[in-house]
Specification:
5-stranded mixed sheet, Ubiquitin-like (UB roll), alpha/beta, single chain, Cytidine Deaminase, domain 2, globular, 2 domains, 27% helix
């Protein structure tokens, strides 16, 4: 399925009104089915759907290790719906708490993993000795948006990037910010990369659900060009996450745990 959809729009520019073509992002419903049981649905951009499903299930602690996955199958149901069917060893109690009919929408509010905050409470505090140079983060944040083709084409998606080294990084793009993290982390996990030795960059605000996802995956550093919410800061503080906002040019605000950033 094509990710970009071309439509006709009317523009007003420099006092002139005219018709032209423009590109918009396509949005589909993704149903996640694990061991023949529907887990839930996500609204998403139709790329990297298997990786999105894996990242989501690991964020929710339903699948704890990529090695527990036996089979992944992507099914194109119709023009508006896809299914990812997964056979895997799962944590049944974490499946039971999900709302089976819930659709996680692409906006704010309900647009979070079902109970990510509750899961984060059970996550381990990060006590690693991982660190990076501030110059590396400035450099990679500067490259970030140039590596995201859907953003470049439409300006309508959020982006996330899991960085391991200059040759090993993973991009996630989607209309929903939480989906971008699940896509990028899902790619990294399926590639066998140790995400505890990575840092994560996101395009949007550092809200509580974004911070909680980083904690769940034990990614030690989370950074954005924008700000964090108070609750995001509190979660980072509780679990030892290095949380960074306003990474622009050669400036950044390290909200919590600055020990991992070498000036």
């Amino acid at each position: 399925m094509e990710t970009i959809f071309e439509i006709e729009v009317t523009k007003i520019k420099n006092g002139k009104k005219f018709t032209t073509s423009d590109e918009v992002i396509r949005e589909i419903k993704l149903e996640i089915i694990v061991n023949d049981k529907k887990i839930g649905s996500l609204m998403a951009v139709p790329v990297d759907l298997e990786e999105l499903a894996v990242g989501y299930l690991m964020s929710e602690d339903i699948i704890q290790n990529v090695k527990d996955i036996v089979k992944i199958e992507l099914i194109d149901v119709d023009t508006k719906t896809f299914q990812v069917k997964i056979k895997a060893k799962v944590v049944e109690k974490n499946i039971e708490r999900l709302d089976l009919e819930g659709v996680i929408v692409s906006g704010c509010g309900r647009a979070v993993s079902t109970q990510i905050s509750k899961i984060a409470i059970d996550a381990a505090v990060m006590k690693d000795n991982f660190s990076i140079e501030a110059t590396l983060l400035f450099e990679e944040m500067g490259k970030f948006y140039t590596q995201c083709p859907l953003y470049e084409q439409t300006g309508c998606v959020h982006t996330a990037k899991v960085y391991f080294d200059e040759k090993t990084y993973f991009i996630g793009e989607d209309i929903a910010q939480h989906n971008t993290i699940d896509k990028a982390v899902g790619k990294a996990r399926l590639a066998g990369v140790d995400v505890t030795k990575c840092f994560l960059m996101v395009s949007g605000r550092l809200s509580s659900e974004m911070v909680a996802k980083a904690v769940m995956h034990q990614i030690p550093i989370l950074a954005s060009r924008t700000a964090s919410t108070c609750r995001g800061v509190n979660i980072a503080d509780k679990f030892g996450l290095t949380l960074i906002g306003f990474v622009r040019g050669e400036k950044m605000n390290i909200y919590r745990n600055p020990r991992r950033i070498n000036a």
